[in-house]
Amino acid sequence: MATEPVLEFDKISKTYQDPFPRRSIDAVHQVSFRVQPGEIFGLVGPNRAGKTTLIKILLTLCQPTSGKAFRFGKPITDRSTLMRVGYMHENQAFPRYWTAHGLLQYYGALGFLDEAIVRDRVPQLLKQVGLADRAHEPIRRFSKGMVQRLALAQALLGNPDLLVLDEPAEGLDLQGRQLVHDAVRQQKQAGKTVLLVSHQPSDIEQLCDRVGVVVGGSLVHQGTVADLLKGKSGTPRSMETVLRGFYEQTRS
Ligand SMILES: Nc1ncnc2c1ncn2[C@@H]1O[C@H](COP(=O)(O)OP(=O)(O)OP(=O)(O)O)[C@@H](O)[C@H]1O
């Protein structure tokens, strides 16, 4: 039986119109890829490549200028499938007067999650991300890494079928990064799907099944991590070397 992709982008382009100064910016150009259920898919590229724009389209936060996109088989404009997505932003700005515990409960209510499930899950998640001892303090007293850990807990709260992590390592210490790795692996074990945007070659190498490389708004490569690291000659290479190659090629 054919399985439906969790995510499908078909020739997606996005041009932003800037009023001052008046100009248009081609952020994404004719990008096509699919993410299958149970897959850990990495999206990599240099600064300004168009990764965040693709994530915004995935989350229906902005509309593509052309092309078609589907989430769980439904048009990306169908917001009902957003309930199945958990999203961790690279620079999460939570209301600073909430406590970590209160915030997760609030997000649970916003996501129409079952109250009893949220009651059980919130302390579990706070423990998982190492915030159990600070659960009842206002977020304004949190360090950057603590906010990132809370962002991970928030993304996992709804037990999502698709977990989208945008630069999850940002501001995290080694233990924090390990938490992210563990969460990704747990999702995979549960048969769920992860889209990981990262500037960390080692994270892509260690976690992802397949990777899409975006440079200058175009998808210049997609394939398995194993094939990428093997190269055409069969000589093993590091992910950092591979990515540098893609980024340099397009600069010249
Ligand atoms: N709201 C916007 N209005 C105008 N231009 C934008 C807007 N958002 C992004 N852009 C432009 O689109 C291009 C791609 O930006 P995007 O944020 O998607 O890149 P990115 O790959 O996520 O970069 P980074 O790794 O630096 O976060 C950039 O040239 C950026 O200036």
Automatic annotation (TrEMBL):
Cross-referenced CDD domains: ABC_DR_subfamily_A (cd03230)
Gene3D superfamilies: P-loop containing nucleotide triphosphate hydrolases
Superkingdom, natural source: Bacteria
Domain ABC transporter: 7-241
UniProt-recorded Gene Ontology molecular function terms: ATP binding; ATP hydrolysis activity
Segments traversing the membrane: none
SUPFAM superfamilies from the UniProt entry: P-loop containing nucleoside triphosphate hydrolases (SSF52540)
Swiss-Prot/TrEMBL keywords: ATP-binding, Nucleotide-binding, Transport
Keyword Transcription (UniProt): no
Family, per entry: Belongs to the ABC transporter superfamily.
Protein name: ABC transporter domain-containing protein
Lineage of origin: Bacteria, Pseudomonadati, Planctomycetota, Planctomycetia, Gemmatales
